[in-house]
């Protein structure tokens, strides 16, 4: 059974690029354009792993991460941040908030796939 | 005000451009100073980087075809893609400036459609670069204002992660 991955990013191009990469590796991919829509989609259930931008309108990635982790039903859902931000202080913040990984854009396809295989594979 | 600071920023900006384009096209682009020669352009994306000591605006001006040729995947919306490219360029420059003790905030990119658009600001220093690569060319500009008391110093401790890197916790 293929794992379901949610991609959350306000850039349609990034969502398209990540979706294409993951679909080619056999994952089912869903998309959300900001943290609020992402949180709502996660609440519907059926998501095994999340790839999430940090800087987004409406609700940013760290806020979405905290909201998801506060829900007992989804506290173990793996969330990997995908962002231009490289600040180690911010990475520590995300780790403390419950993120499982951090990728600095532009991503390398093989690393993204390996990360999702490891995290979503563990979840399914 | 020291010109060294502006020279440092110019060097980091050119490195950021070269690295970003090489990530996508596999080859470092040719970068040269731009005169007022007209280039084929239809679209411009702009980002800003600001904190108390530095205010900078960066823009990428190009044609739709050149913008699409940079991507290693089919582009559905050129405006969004160029905005994302500007975002990644701004982010790369921001990370480099973190290494010099500056932590500017990067804005959301803005994309504008139109021919021959140029960045025009009251900034102290303005860099205009022509970028040539396999699929086309771009005009990339950076306008920078620095506070009098700023002195960019390389930090001893690595404070940013590298672009393209993955950390699993």
What is the residue-mean pLDDT of chain A, rounded to a whole number? 94
Uncertain spans of chain A, ≥5 residues at pLDDT below 50? none
Large-scale geometry of chain B: globular
Termini separation of chain A comes to: 8 Å
The end-to-end span of chain B amounts to 43 Å
Report the total helices of chain A: 5
Question: Which structural class do the helices and strands of chain B define?
Answer: alpha+beta
Q: Report the order of strands and helices of chain A.
A: EHEHEHEHEH
Q: Judging from the principal axes of the Cα atoms, what is the shape of chain A?
A: globular
Order of helices and strands of chain B: HEEEHHEEEEE
Could you explain how this protein is built, in words?
The complex is a heterodimer of chains A (124) and B (169). Chain A is an alpha/beta fold. Chain A is 45% helix and 19% strand. Chain A has five helices and five strands, in the order βαβαβαβαβα. Chain A has a five-stranded parallel beta sheet, sandwiched between helices. In chain A, strand 1, helix 1 (12-24) and strand 2 (28-32) form a beta-alpha-beta unit. The longest helix of chain A is centred in the last third of the chain and has 15 residues, at 109-123. The model of chain A has no long low-confidence stretch (mean pLDDT 94). Chain B has helices at 3-25, 64-70, 78-98; strands at 30-33, 43-50, 54-62, 105-106, 110-113, 125-133, 136-146, 166-168. The A-B interface holds A 11-14, 16-17, 20, 55, 57, 80, 83-89, 91, 95, 99-108, 111-112, 114-115, 118-119 and B 20, 23-24, 71, 73-77, 80-81, 83-84, 87-88, 90-92, 94-95, 98, 103, 106, 108, 158-169. Strand 5 (101-104) of chain A pairs antiparallel with strand 8 (166-168) of chain B, so a sheet runs across the interface.
């Amino acid at each position: 059974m293929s794992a379901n991955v949610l991609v959350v990013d306000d850039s349609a191009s990034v969502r398209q690029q990540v979706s294409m990469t993951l679909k080619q590796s056999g994952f089912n991919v869903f998309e959300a354009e900001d943290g609020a829509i992402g949180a709502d989609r996660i609440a519907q259930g059926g998501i095994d792993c999340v790839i999430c931008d940090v800087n987004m309108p409406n609700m940013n990635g760290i806020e979405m991460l905290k909201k998801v982790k506060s829900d007992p039903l989804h506290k173990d859902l793996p969330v990997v941040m995908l962002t231009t931000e490289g600040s180690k202080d911010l990475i520590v913040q995300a780790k403390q908030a419950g993120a499982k990984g951090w990728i600095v854009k532009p991503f390398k396809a093989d690393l993204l796939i390996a990360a999702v295989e490891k995290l979503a594979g563990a979840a399914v | 005000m020291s010109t060294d600071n502006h020279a440092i920023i110019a060097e980091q900006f050119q490195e950021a451009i070269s690295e970003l384009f090489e990530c996508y096209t596999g080859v470092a682009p040719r970068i040269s100073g731009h005169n007022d020669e007209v280039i084929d352009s239809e679209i411009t994306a702009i980002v800003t980087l600001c904190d108390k000591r530095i205010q900078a605006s960066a823009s990428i001006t190009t044609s739709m075809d050149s913008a699409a040729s940079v991507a290693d995947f089919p582009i559905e919306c050129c405006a969004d893609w160029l905005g994302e490219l500007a975002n990644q360029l701004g982010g790369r420059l921001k990370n480099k400036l973190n290494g010099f003790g500056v932590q500017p905030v990067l804005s959301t990119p803005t994309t504008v459609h139109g021919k021959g658009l140029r960045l025009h600001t009251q900034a102290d220093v303005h860099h205009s670069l022509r970028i040539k690569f396999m699929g086309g060319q771009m005009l990339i500009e950076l306008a920078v204002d620095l506070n009098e008391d700023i002195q960019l110093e390389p930090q001893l401790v690595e404070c940013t992660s590298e672009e393209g890197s993955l950390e699993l916790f």
